Amino acid sequence: MRLDPLMSIPGVRSSALVGEDGLPVEMLGEGGDLLAAELASMRQLMDRGGRRMGLGRLSRLTFASDLAEVIALASGQFTVGVSLIRGSDSRLAQQQLARIAGSLATPGQGLPDVRPVGGER
Questions:
Q1: Domain extent listing, the chain
Q2: Are the beta carbons of 70 and 35 closer than 8 angstroms?
Q3: Where would I find the Roadblock/LAMTOR2 domain in this sequence (predicted)?
Q4: Which of the chain's termini has less CB crowding within 10 Å, N or C?
């Protein structure tokens, strides 16, 4: 699965990939379902915030709490993210997220080919 490499990184608790409709494409780890739901909400925040502040499309959002750090990357119609234990070194997770996000922007990278009903692309 696409997110498997993230789960081998020390400190990673969960990872998720959601589509623009907010539905999870893939989720792994403890709380992966909760992370997926929050990623959908974060994507709306990123899109709205970038537009309102005149910054263009925001592609990355990171926040930390007392217990965890969450990193989300938007790529095309997808959002991919990871939750790490607070205090963990997040650099490797950030690099892997960037690889995954980059592959999501490339057609035919293992995601379903969506074609209009009754028509060709």
A1: 4-104
A2: yes
A3: 2-84
A4: C
pTM, rounded to two decimals: 0.82
Name the residue type at position 65.
Answer: S
Model confidence pLDDT, tens digit, residues 4-27: 999 999 999 999 999 988 899 999
Task: Return the CATH fold of 4-104.
Answer: Beta-Lactamase (3.30.450)
119, amino acid identity: G
